[in-house]
Amino acid sequence: MGVDPARTERGGYGEALFEPWQPGEGERIDLGALAYDGTTRRRLLAAGAGPGVRCLEIGAGTGTVARWLAEEAGAAEVLAVDRDVRFLEPHAGGALRTLAADITAPDFDPGRFDLVHARFVLMHVPDHRRLAARLCGFLAPGGRLVLGDAVDLTSAGPPDTPYRLAMRAMWRALRETIGTDVTWTPQYPRLLAELGLTDVGAEITVPPLTRGSPIAEFWLDTWRRSRPAVLATGLVTPDQLIRAERALAEGTAADLSPGLITAWGRRG
């Protein structure tokens, strides 16, 4: 996601739980992309993605959004930044450039862009407000910032189903190991307005937890990869976690997935 573990409080995303070099990690990331790329693309088009536009993609992951910007939206330039670019490098060329960098480093300054996008990045950063302000600084006058992160809609309240217990334990495990915090993400519109952006808006997308859906498969893989940390929280038992996994696999969870909140604004 473009953050150096040495610069975070609890270790870096990818190092503690989801190592990019582990088999299947690229496929896990792509499951999330399948669930949310449609929403992201629509919002980026509304923000002006297209010919002649210079784009900065932060925490580019496997590059599904960066490649779309360069190859289908027709952007003039796409700089895809991540701390680990192994999934990006095979696609570099033409309008798409890659950069391995820590976006929280004081000397990180990739230039100025017409469109800056980051998805599932700020939720993993201890000082999300400061990083959001830095991203605003990468905008050219009139440029647009589009940010996306997870929003949790169900796990805080009853009923205590195995699925909800597993989700609560997962969020606790992510917070205790890599510093992930999604409690603040509903404040995105206010944050962007306070940072001086105009034309601020936000929306929430919640893909269905149906059997075999990309988002159901994403959470199944995420739970399995983080199982020791999830169980260590004490918020879910091994049997409850197995029952939660079965509910996701069979499409019987009868609940909401954590969603994607996307917020945007324009630099004056």
Automatic annotation (TrEMBL):
<protein>
    <submittedName>
        <fullName>Methyltransferase domain-containing protein</fullName>
    </submittedName>
</protein>
<dbReference type="InterPro" id="IPR013216">
    <property type="entry name" value="Methyltransf_11"/>
</dbReference>
<keyword id="KW-0808">Transferase</keyword>
<keyword id="KW-0489">Methyltransferase</keyword>
<dbReference type="InterPro" id="IPR029063">
    <property type="entry name" value="SAM-dependent_MTases_sf"/>
</dbReference>
<dbReference type="GO" id="GO:0032259">
    <property type="term" value="P:methylation"/>
</dbReference>
<dbReference type="Pfam" id="PF08241">
    <property type="entry name" value="Methyltransf_11"/>
</dbReference>
<dbReference type="GO" id="GO:0008168">
    <property type="term" value="F:methyltransferase activity"/>
</dbReference>
<feature type="domain" description="Methyltransferase type 11">
    <location>
        <begin position="56"/>
        <end position="147"/>
    </location>
</feature>
